[in-house]
Amino acid sequence: MAKTLQLSFTTAEGKQTSLTVDEPKDGLTPAEVEAAMQQIINSGVFEVDGSPLESIKSARIVERIVTELVKA
What we know:
Number of strands: 4
Number of helices: 1
Strand content: over 45%
Structural class: alpha+beta
């Protein structure tokens, strides 16, 4: 089963963007994820069209099952 953590942010100009983390550790709590997202915002490392991340919009873990039917 493939798992990703999707982190969604809003920029200072109101645009929405997201970061995706493959195979996040098991047992993440909402508080841990929110704290990590706030650290990302505070670091100022990421910008979208010159606008820094400003606020947390949402976070979710997505799990999917991939079944290969044909593989060359």
